[in-house]
Amino acid sequence: MTHFRPATALAAVACIAAVTPAVSASPPAYRDASRPVADRVDDLMARMSLQDKVGQMTQAERLAADPATAAAAGIGSILSGGGSAPTPNTAEAWADMYDAYQRAAIATPLGIPTIYGVDAVHGHNNVQGATIFPHNIGLGATDDPELVERIGRATAEEVAGTGIDWDFAPCLCVARNDRWGRTYESFGESPERPTTMASVVTGLQGSTLDGPASVLATAKHYVGDGGTTGGDDQGNTEIDEVELRAVHLPPFRAAIKRGVGSVMISYSSWNDVKMHTNDYLINGVLKNELGFTGFVVSDWQAIDKTDGEEGFTADEVRSSINAGLDMIMVPYDYQKFMDLLRAEVEAGRVLMSRIDDANRRILTKKFELGLFERRFTDRSFTGTIGSPEHRELAREAVRESQVLLKNDGNVLPLAKDGGKIFVAGKNADDIGNQSGGWTITWQGSSGPITPGTTILRGIQQAVSPGTEVTYDRDGNGIDGSYRAAIAVVGETPYAEGEGDRPEAMGLDEEDKATLARLEASGVPVVVVTVSGRPLDIAAELPEWNALLAAWLPGTEGAGVTDVLFGDNNPTGTLPMTWMSSADQQPINEGDDQQPLFPHGYGLSY
Ligand code: GLC
After folding, report:
1. 304 CB under 6 A from ligand 1?
2. Cα(83) to centroid of ligand 1, in Å?
3. Residue owning the nearest CA to atom 6 of ligand 1
4. Residue 27's pLDDT is what?
5. Quick one: pLDDT at residue 1?
6. Is any atom of ligand 1 closer than 6 Å to the C-beta of 170?
7. What tens digit of pLDDT does each residue of 520-564 get?
8. pLDDT at residue 24 in the model
9. Where is the signal peptide (predicted)?
């Protein structure tokens, strides 16, 4: 019989234990959904390498990294830039794409799910067939935060129906100069409406982030993007701190109070300091003073632009991360970003505590969203995309966003019955034009780009069977036999700096020619402007009997005709002062200029 001495016996047990595959112990703490999120984050981070952590701070465009590549590289977030859609561009294809990224991510050793961001800024606007709601300038005209919260909820359902879990919205910019190409992304020129419209955050995020169809919202673009000199997109906001705090900060306070999960930094500068390197405003004000506990994401290739040169450098990586950015929307050269950041940490120029803080913020949101449990698309929401209920909500929002600015002789509302109505204008029968930028593609485009109801179709549906509706884009064929002419004019789609208007801000020559034909007929002319901002139309206004500002209504153009034909009394009021002349820009409430129509103006029947 072999007698083991205690020491030998212990050694023997140790050897046996070492070679015997451990019977699977209970799952690691971070996978235990019953544990507090903070504990799960701690446990997961303790298992992560520096490379893992740098990966979580990296966001790549889907076109730069397919699911297998993204997982192999340890990339923590994927985005679709404006118009970056799967083929075919259907809700099901989006959901399949999202699920493929998640399947690859959770198959990695630590199985950290990705978080996938899109710009659903007026509905799930990248997706064919989605409900396209009015852009923010129109929602600002409603001055109805409860409606906007419902729009947030409907948008979240359509976004979640494609799997996507993060929405780069709302833009809470306060547009001070209407020359800015992003004026239509603003709820208003004063902080009050952007502040109350932060209600959309609650709609998007739901009562809890892991609730059904909840998606992470993004307050953007922090801070002062709407205050640049000349309305120059990505320009320089040259104001003192008192004005920055009074005008541009309140909407972010409101969004933080509503628990917004992420904040996107603005491309712009504040008094010549790039926001993406502004330690005082990000670390000092946003995170410390305002107590923002979510995570901070850069804008697209924004860190490339801080030194005025193409591409990004180690200095730009270091200065943005040390300023308080937690995740960088690279979006293509992600390996270079990861290598540079890792090198900065290893050189001690970015502290590990900064890396850990960023990871803690990001992972906390991933756990709170339930991504470790609810990994794939909840296809029960896929059918909400472009649903009749959502389109009806959008039509309600279009109605409420209409601002009646002139109504001589009470020419409006138009009768539905009898006679002939002439419709003209390049924006009368064009879903793309009435939706504006950020629709199917980044810049948007004219034409039948997605299913919806044009304003012309809305007119045809609104009138009685005995009423004849004639449409000619240019106004050719009108004569005195018509009882009214409706001219739907304004702007064609644009986004961001492409839409800056440093020069004239009036109607184009096509619209002016169309209006001249209508006016020459002697028929009462009702003008409907479809535009992303107030336009310089004071010189033409006397020839018009009525003027209705429709803004960028989206797919449900019948909401405009609900007001034109009196099914709804117009209640919208101007979220932006309406200039008398482009020379007045910037023109805002309280300055000593004489507008054509003041901020808050709007007529009713
Ligand atoms: C854009 C916009 C930003 C958007 C981001 C991702 O350049 O500035 O609003 O969320 O890139 O598309």
Report:
1. no
2. 11
3. 81
4. 86
5. 35
6. no
7. 999 999 999 999 999 999 999 999 999 999 999 999 999 999 999
8. 52
9. 1-25
Residues of the chain with pLDDT under 50: 1-23
For ligand 1, is residue 225 a contact (CB within 6 Å)?
no
> Which domains does the chain carry?
53-382 (3.20.20.300), 391-584 (3.40.50.1700)
Cβ neighbours of 93 (radius 10 Å): 16
Nearest CA to ligand 1 atom 8: 299
Mutate to test the pocket of ligand 1, among 80, 168, 173, 438 (most ligand atoms within 8 A of CB): 168
Structure letter (DSSP) for residue 244: I
- pLDDT given for residue 8 in this prediction: 45
SS3 readout for 356-415: HHHHHHHHHHHHHCCCCCCCCCCHHHHHHCCCHHHHHHHHHHHHHHCEEEEEHHHCCCCC
The predicted pLDDT at position 21 comes to 41
Give the separation between CA 296 and CA 220, rounded to whole angstroms.
10
Say what angle helices 388-401 and 145-160 make with each other, to 10 degrees. Answer: 150
Cβ of 554 less than 6 Å from ligand 1: no
Ligand 1 neighbour 168 (Cβ under 6 A): yes
Q: Which two tokens stand for residue 491?
A: 């702007």
Cα angle, residue 518 at apex, residues 516 and 522 outer, rounded to 5°: 110
User: What separation in Å is there between the alpha carbon of 394 and the centre of ligand 1?
Assistant: 23
pTM over 0.90: yes
Ligand 1 atom, smallest distance to 80 CA = 12
- Is 222 near ligand 1, meaning CB less than 6 Å away? no
**Residue whose CA lies nearest to ligand 1 atom number 7:** 300
Q: How far is Cα 152 from Cα 144, in angstroms, rounded to an integer? A: 13
Q: What is the pLDDT of residue 26?
A: 81
- Residues belonging to the active site: 299
Q: What is the pLDDT of residue 475?
A: 98
- Residue 490 sits at φ, ψ, to 5 deg, of 130, -135
Residue found by looking up tokens 């206004």 in the block: 541
Query: Beta-carbon neighbour count of residue 310 at 10 Å?
Result: 8
Q: 570 near 594, Cβ under 8 Å?
A: no
